[in-house]
Design brief:
It is a single chain. The protein has about 450 residues and is of the alpha/beta class. The protein is about 45% helix and about 15% strand. The chain has an 8-stranded mixed sheet, with helices on both faces. The protein has a 6-stranded parallel sheet with strand order 11-10-9-12-13-14, sandwiched between helices. It is globular, with a radius of gyration of 22 Å.
Length: about 450
């Protein structure tokens, strides 16, 4: 772009943004806004405010963020000022109120915001882009099929100038549901560079963090098990919570950091406290940007379908050993088959205790075999995986670093951002984007 050209102006719309960095979709939108700005795109963000005291406008990494509409934590109501239709109307009117402020309207999910985004973009005469978000039971596809407003959202997405999906299975499903092939684009969720925190080890970082939040104090001899998932039944967090007592009995020195918020927060706290784990857990809530939390932990356990847009990629970038539930979403993200995963699940404690310092060097250049897998229906497989990591942390970190190298090559965040930038510039220029491009990220899925 020459110095005389005006940068493309993109309005990003999302249900969550800063300070909800512990929510997967918010973390993704924060990274997207940052990446687009660094690539020369002029970025503005519209998101709801969740408390009356929240500022209606502020700056985030040189991006202007607007919060003109109140979102109530209790969800929608059938009547009154908390209906979905009122929210859609207010958001649409706000976008239309300044038609010269953007060249592209982008919505980060196919939910209620997509209706407002597409209708407003049509009214002011600019292209709209909608990303179909989520995986498994948390996906927009499931939302489309289980509510009347979901069907309306699907219809709105079909009217968008471009639809973005992140995987081959989502791409196929969208086309099967009537999506326009010429307006459908696949852009994978990329893994970014390692975050620099300036401290030499996770223990030093934990010590520094504990001075800010005493709940994060960890004795020097302990290992931190991290979970960054919403505290509700759909996330899978209860799989780890129910196993915490046995894990602590079998593996000495475990500390559990449960990052996030949700309706089960008090239930989880009470259960862990009744199990005698009050001194072995920390539930510090949400973080505006939880990057330091990943760098300070020794391993991360992830169970649910939500988390593969930002949380898991961030853990990979931090070089954090991963223990993943054997789910279709996790298998597709790492490009492995169910039979391959079953072979990697540790079935016996004797196998977990075996030390094999050359294991990393013998493994193929695929990331799937380098993470630890477990069967959610068999808690002992989770224990064996954690036991192997804690028993040889240095080898586990070597595996995690190799996972990072592979994923940064096959799922580079810079490549993802470049594809977003190319799409936005083509749409703003009025040219037809090329949907036949195939990158290594797509082929890796």
């Amino acid at each position: 772009m020459s110095g005389l050209e005006r940068p493309v102006r993109v309005l990003l719309i999302g249900r969550h943004f800063w300070p909800h960095g512990s929510i997967d979709s918010a973390g993704h939108l924060m990274e997207l806004a940052t990446g687009l700005r660094l690539a020369g795109i002029q970025v503005s963000v519209v998101t709801p405010k969740y408390a009356g005291s929240w500022a209606e406008r502020f700056s985030f990494r040189e991006c202007q963020v607007y919060r003109p509409i109140r979102m109530f934590r209790t969800g929608w109501t059938a009547r009154g000022d908390r209906t979905a239709s009122r929210y859609i109307r207010y958001l649409r009117d706000w976008i239309e109120s300044d038609p010269t402020s953007c060249d592209i309207v982008y919505c980060d999910a196919g939910r209620e915001e997509a209706i407002a985004a597409v209708e407003a973009a049509q009214a002011i005469g600019v292209p709209s882009v909608v990303r179909l978000s989520g995986h498994g039971d948390c996906s927009d596809f499931e939302f489309f099929n289980h509510s009347r407003i979901g069907k309306r959202c699907r219809s709105a997405v079909k009217d968008a100038a471009a639809v973005i999906l992140d995987s081959a299975s989502a791409h196929r499903r969208w086309l099967a549901e009537g999506g326009d092939k010429t307006r459908t684009h696949r852009i994978a969720h990329g893994v970014g560079p390692m975050k620099e925190h300036g401290l030499s080890s996770p223990k030093n970082l934990r010590r520094a963090m504990s001075r800010i939040n005493g709940d994060l104090f960890v004795p020097a001899s302990c290992a931190v098990v991290l979970s960054v998932e919403r505290l509700d039944r759909s996330s899978g967090i209860m799989t780890l919570v129910k196993s915490a007592y046995l894990l602590s009995n079998h593996i000495q020195g475990l500390q559990f950091w449960l990052i996030g918020d949700g309706p089960l927060r008090d239930t989880i706290y009470s259960r862990l406290k009744s199990d005698g784990l009050r001194q072995s857990m920390a539930m510090p809530g949400s973080f505006g940007s939880p990057d330091d939390v990943y760098s300070a932990a020794d391993l991360m356990v992830h169970v649910g379908d939500e988390g593969f847009e930002h949380q898991v990629p961030t853990a990979i970038a931090a070089g954090l050993p991963l223990v993943l539930a054997n789910t279709a979403t996790a298998r597709e993200f790492f490009g492995v088959s169910e039979s391959e995963v079953r072979q990697r699940i540790i079935e016996r404690r004797g196998d977990a205790l075996q030390a094999d310092p050359e294991a990393v060097d013998r493994m193929s250049e695929q990331a799937g075999p380098l993470v630890w897998w477990f069967d959610p229906a068999r808690p002992k497989t989770l224990r064996f995986a954690i036991e192997q990591i804690v028993g040889n942390l240095e080898q586990a970190r070597r595996r995690a670093r190799q996972t990072r190298r592979i994923m940064q090559r096959t799922r580079s965040r810079s490549d993802s951002i470049e594809r977003y930038v190319t799409l936005f510039r083509q749409l703003a220029a009025g040219s037809l984007p090329n949907t036949s491009q195939s990158t290594s990220m797509e082929n890796a899925q």
